[in-house]
Every structure is written in structure tokens, then in C-alpha cells.
Specification:
Length: about 375
């Protein structure tokens, strides 16, 4: 009998030949460290920016969601969490999704209509890209953070569409760069366009109150639809969208990734509520991770704009996949886990080490990383 799945093996073999084959590796986390095959590593790969994922979670009486939110899975604690998010984001309303991916893909697929146009940054997260592809709207991908390109597209195409939506991450997860939100909002005002942003890597980390880049750049009132995640700085699981009542009500009635998914578990809701308590009551965690980020960039002589200098994502772009894997292994050999990020996660020729910082990292741990990076040991070919 013909092997009906041989084409999968051929593609996997091709990935293996180019050092792009990936596998799941079981690890046992413990704070900012983990155990892998009996060895202990300092974890510079997690998105647990405030160190909340390892904190105790309040006990709950129920384990599972049991149903989609619209059937009977939306409980009093879900309502309380949505209200807390709306308060943090200073919006009229908010709702919760089972994951950040579901929130991004669902919102972008649902809101733009068949007579609309979506402008999407070329380095947007896969969830936003998939949402664009699922949408009935026309779509144009613009070069990363290129305001002039956005303006040119709007000048040429705005009159041909009923509505235009500009979709962007606020912090780009593989680059640590920040979207030019002030300029994008200015263009939205000029051309009657609507911005949709994903604050996944900014919630809890950026802004005086920790609501994200929109707060940090002073454009919260100009960005009506803001998506976020509960699984990074907040230390739980799930996603959310905050915005006007009418937009949230429309998503509740039309967004397939919300309607046809089981609601977030009560334990995840409780963990998210505890995370929001920490964001509001422990601003020193935010200050700590921002200080570590600035220190790492200064030590590696990475020059970035002032706002970007406090982003806890620091890429070291090496280009070649083999070199990047060797560099990650060199760091792992001394107990430092820094993930090697390869295509297709990043564009060809831009393989990199991606350093993620946490408020739980100690100065000594960061010093070890800086020492080996500055000395260049990870980038030397092995004998």
C-alpha cells in the first residue's frame, strides 16, 4: 500500500537537512529556571516578563469551563475579569478569549467586511496574519513600521473602500521594536481609518499603569480596539479584546473563535485576576524588568530609541541558522537558555538569539549572560 503520508516525511526531512526541524522538549520550570534532562538552566526564553507565572494561584471550586461563553461558560468571575481588563485599558467594555491567538485571529477576521481594506505590518504575529487571510476584506502588507508606505497606500486606495483598518502589533515579538503608533493614529485621523493593535508583549510591561504601548505613547484614546493576552506578563492563559460596547457586542455575536470555543477555565481566570492585582499593586516589577532591559542593551551597545530601550525582548541577529544554533548550544553548555529563532518564524537570513527578560532575573544571572555575549564565545565555531 502506498504511504499516504510520505509527503509529510519528505518535508520533515527537508527541514532537518536545513537545521530547521523543531521538536517539543519537556522541561520542568522553577521560577526563572528550568530542569531539562537533569540539567538546570537560567531561562532567558520565557515571556513571563513580570515573573508572575510561577506565583501561587488562588484556589477555585471548578476545574473546567464546561461550555462556550454564549451557552453557559461565562460565569461571574469571567465577568469580573472582563471588567478589570476594561478598567485597565480605559475602554467601555472587554471580553475574553481562550487564547491570544484566538483573540487576534478572530477579531481581525470578524470586524473588517467585504468592502473594506486591511493594512498589515509585514512582521505582524502569525495570529494577526491568519486573521487577515480569513477576513473578507482586501489586504495589503506594508514594510515594517514604514509610515510613508502606509500613507502612500491610503492615498491610492482609501477612496475605493468603505472602511480601512490598520493592524499592527505594538511590540514585535521577534524584534523588540515598537510600532509608530502616534504616526499611525495621525494617518487614521487624516484618512478616516481604524487602528487595531495587539498589545500582547506590552500589557503589564509598558505604560505608567501597565496597560501597554498605547498608554506609554499617549494614544489610548485614539486606538479604539486593543487586543491582548493573559499568558505573558499577566502570567495566566487566554486572550482579550477591549473596546467600545458596540464592538465587543458585535464580536460576541459574530466572532467564530469566541462563539465556538470553550470558555477560559476558572483557574486561568483566577490566575489572571491575581496577575492584574500584581500589575496594579507591584509597579516595582515593571520598573525592574525595564531596568534590566536597558542595562542589557547598554552592555551590548545596542542603540535604540528611549521607549524601545525598556522592551524586554532583545534579539541578537546572527543571520545563519547553523551559527545561531551553535551559539544557543554554547550558552546552554554553561547553563543559560537563550532560544535560537529560525525561519519560518523569522525571515530567511535573520536567524537570531532571542533574549527575553523577566523581573525575576537577578543581576548576577544577567551579568553571566552579558559576559559570555560580550566575550563572543557563543559566536565562535566549535573546534
Amino acid at each position: 500500500m502506498t504511504d499516504r503520508f510520505s509527503h509529510f516525511r519528505e518535508q520533515l526531512d527537508a527541514l532537518d537537512r536545513t537545521s530547521r526541524l523543531r521538536r517539543l522538549v519537556p522541561r520542568s520550570p522553577a521560577g526563572n529556571q528550568f530542569i531539562e534532562n537533569g540539567a538546570e538552566f537560567v531561562n532567558f526564553g520565557s515571556n513571563d516578563y513580570l515573573g508572575l507565572a510561577s506565583q501561587p494561584t488562588p484556589s477555585v471550586s471548578r476545574r473546567g469551563g464546561g461550555s462556550s461563553s454564549l451557552v453557559c461558560g461565562w460565569t461571574d468571575v469571567h465577568e469580573q475579569l472582563a471588567d478589570r481588563i476594561a478598567s485597565l485599558e480605559s475602554t467601555e467594555s472587554a471580553t475574553i478569549f481562550p487564547s491570544g491567538f484566538a483573540a487576534c485571529s478572530g477579531v481581525v477576521a470578524t470586524l473588517p467586511g467585504p468592502n473594506d481594506l486591511i493594512l498589515s505590518d509585514e512582521l505582524n504575529h502569525a495570529s494577526l496574519i491568519d486573521g487577515c487571510r480569513l477576513s473578507a476584506a482586501d489586504r495589503v502588507v506594508y514594510p515594517h513600521r514604514d509610515v510613508l508606505a502606509i500613507e502612500s497606500i491610503l492615498q491610492q486606495q482609501r477612496s475605493q473602500h468603505e472602511r480601512v483598518w490598520i493592524v499592527t502589533d505594538t511590540i514585535f515579538s521577534m524584534d523588540g521594536t515598537i510600532a509608530p503608533l502616534v504616526e499611525i493614529c495621525d494617518l487614521c485621523d487624516r484618512f478616516d481609518a481604524i487602528p487595531i493593535v495587539d498589545e500582547a508583549h506590552a500589557t503589564g510591561v509598558m505604560g505608567t499603569n501597565g496597560s501597554g504601548v498605547c498608554e506609554a505613547l499617549g494614544v489610548k484614546s485614539r486606538v479604539p480596539i486593543r487586543i491582548g493576552t493573559l499568558s505573558k506578563a499577566i502570567g495566566s492563559q487566554g486572550g482579550f479584546v477591549a473596546g467600545p460596547h458596540v464592538v465587543i457586542d458585535y464580536l460576541i455575536n459574530r466572532c467564530r473563535t469566541l462563539i465556538y470555543s470553550t470558555s477560559l477555565t476558572p483557574s486561568a481566570v483566577a490566575a489572571a485576576m491575581a496577575g492584574l492585582d500584581s500589575i496594579e499593586g507591584e509597579p516595582e516589577r515593571r520598573a525592574r524588568v525595564q531596568a534590566l532591559s536597558s542595562r542589557l542593551r547598554a552592555s551590548l551597545e545596542i542603540i535604540t530609541p528611549p521607549v524601545e530601550s525598556i522592551v524586554p525582548i532583545v534579539p541578537v541577529i546572527l543571520g545563519d541558522v547553523t551559527t545561531t544554533l551553535a551559539a544557543a548550544k554554547s550558552l546552554a553548555d554553561i547553563g543559560l537558555y537563550v532560544p535560537a529563532i529560525r525561519p519560518p518564524t523569522v525571515p530567511d537570513g535573520t536567524a537570531r538569539l532571542r533574549i527575553s527578560l523577566s523581573a525575576d532575573h537577578t543581576g548576577q544571572q544577567l551579568d553571566r549572560l552579558i559576559k559570555h555575549l560580550r566575550r563572543g564565545d557563543p559566536f565562535r565555531p566549535s573546534a
